[in-house]
Specification:
The complex is a heterodimer of chains A (249) and B (425). With 249 residues, chain A is of the alpha/beta class. Chain A is built from 7 helices and 12 strands. Chain A starts with a strand and ends with a helix. Classes of the chains: A alpha/beta (249), B alpha/beta (425). The interface between A and B is medium-sized, with 29 and 22 residues.
């Protein structure tokens, strides 16, 4: 589904990604772990099309299409979803309207029929309930006045409604208590299917107890320094990043 | 009738000479106003003269146009009314500055008279100080004189000004409106100004809000983008009275909405909120002077500007607090969203405070669309242009939230939608 080869990226001439190779097949969940400043968030922004980052080398294809040539909205319509580490507040924009506009824009781009207000609300209410979120979340302005945990859950709600083919979760676990963490994990697990893949970016192994990955990669200094099965996350927890990076060097 | 065509001050004076014998009101006041106007002219029109009150707005283009008096019969009524937002409320319609009985639907609870029927000028307006008020006083032919009796809640009334300046010289009209609320009275006044072609619409309002009365005044300026809209309002608020106004500027080549509000008694409230959405080479100017001449009054003002193309927005806000006006609460905020590098906003707040126990603050922000917000919307699949319009609408919606009457809010929302459709066309 996602194939990244030798990807290099810089921000304001400062190189961050120094040649990433990563392949995520259909139906698999991969985790990327790494210390602060290793390039985890940069990778998620480059894949979702943030313009502040300059791609200086390599390639990324999504279902065989050149991902890096697509606009952020084209990537979304193709099925890519980024759950933001810091979800953005949109004062004056209602959550339900925002979600319906996004869903219908994607459906339009794919040549599918749009949902009317009634159809959409039915879908949105069902997903809100399934994620144990208060229904007034749909009526509020996007992320305005939300607690940290509510913002993260709102990202998962968006994901549940937009139904991406590939979800990138950028430290979705940070700032969540254990109950919220379980809800978020259940939200992701509910989407697991042969045609759904996920890239879970996290600092801690804890989230991976609930979203069990097929593969774990360790990112350091803008490169993947080790890859392995789910047990790698536990090894990392035991040795710490410093120990593992020293071993890999 | 075709008046002789001149431009500038001479053109307006020629209109006055042609009309003076049949204009209503005090001929002496008109003659004095004409003399003031003859001496002062239009701000910014004469080279080398710079007036502080007109620092950012020049009326040179107004002076350069040639005018015919607005007696040209207007196209049929349906065409005219098609431009007016339709709401289920009584309406008082002026076409080219003249009352139209056939298009109006008079309100049951408001006493209405035409200024043309022996109307008198009130004493609030200052033709001796403001050149456009002098022009209006010199040429006013008609206008609405509204009175809401004590204790009456008159509901919603729609005051419509349609101007049609199609073909030939520009039309100029100078309606003189008086709005008078007796003690405890209430009125929601929606004022819309629309039109087509080239014209100058230069209304003057004199507003009196008596004790504990509440006037909600919502003003939609959606004139033709080839027109000039220069409006001056004077309001006096008695003890416990409220003047709650919101102005939305969408149209005109040059627009200036000037308001002078004075608290004459304690515990009054004034809201002078507004928003403007301008594109092309449009110029929109909100100028306000709030005079606190009594203690414990509150004035609140938030103006939001969305400026595209090479448009220019101006906000001048002056708060004067007299020595007696202790416990004054004054607040002023001007926010601008610049959608293009060629758009411009000029902000001039002025506080003049002679009392020592007051709370007065002002602020201004200028910015572009937020890159994080834009990326967030696009990352969810919303195309760039649509994402931008969502953010602009959200910015405006926060201003429009000041309008509590749902029917009136609907009119403003539809007018904003119309603006977007025109931009897209």
């Amino acid at each position: 589904m996602l194939e990244i080869r030798g990807l290099r990226a810089a921000i304001e001439d400062k190189p961050i990604l120094q040649g990433i190779d990563l392949v995520i097949p259909d139906g698999e969940v991969h985790a990327i772990m790494g210390p602060n400043g290793s390039g985890k968030s940069t990778l998620s922004y480059v894949l979702s099309g943030r313009e502040d980052y300059a791609v200086t080398g390599g390639s990324a294809t999504f279902d065989g299409r050149d991902l890096l040539a697509m606009s952020p909205e084209e990537r979304a319509a193709a099925g890519l979803f980024l759950a933001f580490q810091y979800p953005v507040e949109l004062p004056g924009v209602g959550n339900a309207n925002f979600l319906r506009t996004a869903l219908n824009a994607q459906r339009r781009a794919r040549g599918e029929s749009e949902l009317d207000a009634v159809q959409f609300l039915k879908l949105a209410r069902a997903e809100t309930k399934r994620l144990a979120m208060p229904e007034d979340m749909l009526r509020r302005n996007v992320n305005v006045g939300f607690s940290g945990g509510e913002k993260k859950r709102n990202e998962v709600l968006q994901m549940a409604i937009l139904r991406p083919r590939l979800a990138i979760l950028d430290e979705t676990d940070s700032g969540l208590d254990i109950d919220a963490l379980k809800i978020v994990a259940e939200g992701v697990n509910a989407l697991r299917r042969p045609d759904f893949s996920a890239l879970v970016i996290t600092h801690y192994q804890r989230l991976l107890d609930y979203i069990v990955p097929d593969r774990v990669h360790v990112l350091a200094g803008g490169r993947i320094v080790r890859s392995g099965g789910p047990e790698l996350a536990h090894e990392l927890e035991a040795k710490g990043y410093a120990g593992m990076i020293a071993e890999a060097a | 009738m075709t008046a002789p065509l001149h431009t500038g001050v001479a053109g307006f004076l020629a209109c006055y000479e042609a009309l003076r014998d049949r204009l209503p009101g005090d001929a002496g006041e008109r003659a004095a106003a004409a003399e003031t106007f003859r001496r002062g002219g239009l701000p910014g029109a004469a080279a080398g003269r710079r007036e502080e009150a007109w620092k950012y707005t020049s009326l040179r283009p107004v002076a350069d146009a040639s005018y015919a008096q607005a007696v040209t019969p207007v196209a049929d009524a349906d065409t005219v009314m098609a431009r007016v937002p339709h709401i289920d409320a009584p309406r008082i319609v002026f076409v080219n500055g003249v009352f139209s009985a056939e298009l109006s639907l008079l309100p049951p609870l408001v006493a209405f008279r035409r200024f043309a029927d022996g109307g008198r000028f009130d004493t609030l307006a200052r033709p001796d100080r403001e050149p456009l008020v002098a022009l209006n006083t010199m040429l006013a032919e008609d206008g609405a004189i509204l009175h809401v009796p004590a204790g009456v809640d008159a509901g919603l009334v729609h005051l419509v000004n349609v101007t049609s300046g199609i073909g030939g010289a520009a039309v100029n009209c100078h309606p003189r409106h008086r709005i008078d609320l007796s003690a405890g009275a209430k009125l929601v006044l929606l004022e819309t100004s629309v039109g087509e072609g080239q014209y100058l619409h230069n209304p003057v309002f004199e507003v009196r809000v008596a004790q504990d009365a509440v006037l909600t005044h919502v003003r939609l300026q959606d004139e033709a983008t080839t027109a000039f809209h220069l409006s001056t309002l004077y309001a006096e608020i008695a003890e416990g009275g409220t003047y709650d106004s919101f102005g939305l500027n969408l149209g005109s080549r040059i627009a200036r909405t000037e308001a002078h509000v004075r608290f004459a008694g304690p515990k009054g409230t004034a809201h002078l909120n507004g928003a403007q959405l301008l594109g092309g080479t449009q110029h929109g100017d909100f100028t306000t002077v709030v005079t606190h001449d009594a203690p414990s009054c509150a004035s609140r003002q938030t103006v939001k500007n969305v400026l595209a193309g090479r448009s220019q927005g101006v906000f001048q806000g002056r708060i004067e607090v007299a020595r007696v006006a202790q416990k004054t609460d004054g607040y002023q905020m001007n926010q601008a969203l610049l959608l293009s590098p060629d758009a411009e906003i000029d902000t001039k707040p002025e506080l003049e405070i002679f009392a020592d126990d007051v709370k007065c603050s002002h602020g201004a922000t200028v910015g572009e669309l937020d890159a994080d917000q834009l990326f967030y919307l696009r990352s969810r699949g919303i195309p760039d242009a649509e994402a931008r319009s969502i953010l602009v609408r959200a910015f405006l919606a926060e201003a429009l939230d000041a309008v509590k009457n749902e029917m009136v809010r609907g009119v403003l929302d539809r007018a904003v939608e119309g603006w977007w459709e025109r931009q897209a066309a």
